[in-house]
Amino acid sequence: MRFDVLTLFPEMFEGFFSSSIMKRAMDQRLVEASLVNFRDYSTDKHRMVDDTPYGGGGGMVLKPEPLFRAVEALTEETQVRPPVLMMSPQGTPFTQKKAEALSRHSRLILLCGHYEGFDERIRRHLVDEEISIGDYVLTGGELAAMVVMDSIIRLVPGVLGNAGSAEEDSFSTGLLEYPQYTRPADFRGWKVPDVLLSGHHAQIARWRRQQSLERTLERRPDLLEHAPLTDEERAWLKQ
Ligand code: SAM
């Protein structure tokens, strides 16, 4: 899996690339990431990448030339252009399903905006999809790009040590995850449920499924509408 991130602030990615699972995935060459400062593609003698908006108003708008030139340079030798994703509060809300769909591509190009955002022609003629990480406005797309990359890399085969752990995560099953416990079995009198200590795999799986359902019903009942449930589970929810 390869990411090309177009940003004016490549230094923001240093900690992300040099820590934890992202670092391991890059060291193992399961994930490759390049940072492109699109200021390097400015045609302006002052290396300007933004300008005032036509029609007036505050703030600066990212000019089309540097971003078009940067994407064209990245893709000039590729036969099939990888999807170009714009980080944007106006985009499709990012979900686990979207992360799963994007993880099936071998390469993605991520555009990080700043200031007032992008000239509309970038949105219309360069970008395949706009992605929003939530209904709030960030100062730049860098944090959004890291969120998107982080959620995708954990789905790349081999990146997580225990392959099962991504499959059972919240949202992957359509439900929120069941409660997790580790040692000690008794902490300050708060005990781990007996079933988890029983060693009885079928009972543990049943308990976890029931806990997932209850937790989802309590916290995110909206998810239940589209979750793959058995007839028995649907009947239980209607009680
Ligand atoms: N004026 C723009 C608007 O109202 O849509 C907001 C621009 S914002 C200050 C600057 C940049 O941050 C955006 O171009 C985008 O790349 C990024 N950004 C801000 N909020 C975001 C969000 N919720 N999801 C993804 N990217 C976001």
TrEMBL record:
Gene that specifies this protein: trmD
Enzyme Commission number(s): 2.1.1.228
Official protein name in the record: tRNA (guanine-N(1)-)-methyltransferase
Domain tRNA methyltransferase TRMD/TRM10-type: 1-225
Transmembrane segments annotated in the record for this chain: none
Biological process, per Gene Ontology: methylation
Record HAMAP family: TrmD
UniProt cross-references to InterPro entries, sorted A to Z: Alpha/beta_knot_MTases, tRNA_m1G_MeTrfase_C_sf, tRNA_m1G_MeTrfase_TrmD, tRNA_m1G_MTases_N, tRNA_MeTrfase_TRMD/TRM10
An annotated Gene Ontology molecular function: tRNA (guanine(37)-N1)-methyltransferase activity
Keywords recorded for this protein, A-Z: Cytoplasm, Methyltransferase, S-adenosyl-L-methionine, Transferase, tRNA processing
Protein localization: Cytoplasm
Binding site for S-adenosyl-L-methionine: 113, 133-138
Entry-linked Pfam families: tRNA_m1G_MT
Chief location of this protein within or outside the cell: cytoplasm
Top EC category: transferase
Signal peptide range in chain numbering: none
Quaternary state and interactors: Homodimer.
Reaction catalyzed: guanosine(37) in tRNA + S-adenosyl-L-methionine = N(1)-methylguanosine(37) in tRNA + S-adenosyl-L-homocysteine + H(+)
Family the entry assigns: Belongs to the RNA methyltransferase TrmD family.
Protein source organism: Desmospora profundinema
